Amino acid sequence: TLAALGFDLDDDGFFDDEDDELLPVVAVVGRPNVGKSTLVNRIIGRREAVVEDVPGVTRDRVTYKAEWSGHRFLLVDTGGWEREAKGMAAQVAAQAERAMNEADAVMFVLDATVGATDADEDVVKVLRGTKKPVLLIANKVDDSRGEADAAMLWSLGLGEPQAVSSLQGRGMGDMLDNLIAILPDEGSRVAEPRGPRRIALLGKPNVGKSSLLNQLAGEQRVVVDSVAGTTVDPVDELVEIAGTTWRFVDTAGIRKRVHEASGHEYYASLRTKAALDKAEVAVVLLEADQPMAEQDTRILSMVVESGRALVLAFNKWDLMDDERRKYLEREIERDLHQVSWAPRVNISARTGRHTDKLVPALHKALEGWETRVPTSRLNAFLATLVQSHPHPVRGGKQPRILFGTQATTKPPTFVLFTTGFLEAGYRRFIERRLREEFGFDGTPVRVNLRVRE
Ligand code: GDP
Ligand code: GDP
Predict the structure, then answer these.
(1) With 60 as the cut, is the pLDDT of residue 301 above it?
(2) Mind listing the pLDDT tens digit for each residue in 100-154?
(3) Nearest CA-CA partner of 285 in 329, 219, 349, 226
(4) Which of this chain's residues are annotated to bind GTP 2 (predicted)?
(5) Residue whose C-alpha is closest to residue 247's, from 218, 270, 281, 274
(6) How high is the ipTM of this complex?
(7) Which residues belong to the annotated binding site for GTP?
(8) What is the DSSP string of 232-298?
(9) Which of 119, 148, 151, 196 is 20 to 30 A removed from 380 (C-alpha atoms)?
(10) How far is the CA of 282 from the centre of ligand 2 (A)?
């Protein structure tokens, strides 16, 4: 949902109407004072209370419903950085990046009377890489003499500058026509499927997937056809566990493998990938009584790569003895370090032992997966971290972190704006500390860099 994407919906109470979630989303980005608020107010046709810019406090985004010639869309005013803060340019660029990830189109606003500043250039770099449509707004063109200023902005390589005056309304009609033209149709935004959370049950043949599904589902299973009407294969099953319904995706694959236990590896991994695509969280079953196999590692790597939440289930616990248990601990340390953050449950699909621990683990993993760290908190954390553990000096240089932002959730993905490349060890250190501080149990965490030359 939009809320999960970080739009602050509850506060402005905007999404009572279910349809709103399907409206295309337009993010308005640009540095302070170019006229973003004035533009937004002009488009929505009312004067909103001015939001105070308290230094050090980030004003979070505000979403408005807008309409132009019968087309409805959501306008997200992405205000909110510390006005005089150092690294402001990086902040604006970070914000453009975040907006870009979450919106269907971006309105990038510049002050035509000033032209493109360094901060604007940073945003341009971010926007050039996107496949999302961008509308370049040359604001403050109050009369025809300003048209030449606007035309200068062709050089940014973002297409035709839309010369407007947000203050006076000049050029608004044409600009909005062009905006509507680049927007996806209302309702074409892919709605997050509501309802049951989606689980992929994964693991090598014979690890106990269908046994576990049977154990969890008992008689309470509902098979969901792949596409209503054109069913070839029943693919998903709704299973109620302790009062909550979960959707197990691609269970046809699980059931089939009972008969094709030695099925071809290549198809097995295609199936795993397809299930991961549909799922939000993966339960990877491992055989507690057997050493980890290469196939287990491969499946785990696929989960990490897919960015899904993860719960590890050591199955066949009824076959464990003390000797084996000793080895298992060692194996976990050696073979599972890449997923050391995943909650683990020790179960027996045969006896039903501890299968009730699975649901709390799933909730925990999904919670980590959807966690969003507010930008102000993240930067306070980074400042402390960098002060106590600065990046080592390399070749006389010491890269600095200027600013960070969490670009997305599902999985949590951070973007750090830096003055140089951070070495791998330092990035792992940052990830580790992020986990300690904000608790991302059960989810991969990504840390990306934007290095300023
Ligand atoms: P924001 O920080 O980007 O949201 O910018 P604001 O909307 O607060 O506008 C900054 C200043 O520019 C205000 O004084 C506005 O009145 C002024 N401004 C905004 N749009 C225009 C315009 O089209 N023409 C002129 N002359 N001034 C404008
Ligand atoms: P799948 O190929 O992953 O779906 O695995 P199955 O559910 O078909 O299980 C493969 C074999 O392992 C079957 O003979 C099961 O009875 C057995 N099995 C599954 N779970 C357990 C368990 O927890 N303990 C024991 N002892 N055997 C199990």
Answers:
(1) yes
(2) 777 889 999 999 999 999 888 888 888 887 778 999 999 999 999 999 899 889 8
(3) 349
(4) 203-210, 250-254, 315-318
(5) 281
(6) 0.58
(7) 30-37, 77-81, 139-142, 203-210, 250-254, 315-318
(8) SSEEEEEEEETTEEEEETTHHHHHHHHH-TT--HHHHHHHHHHHHHH-SEEEEEEETTS---HHHHH
(9) 119
(10) 18
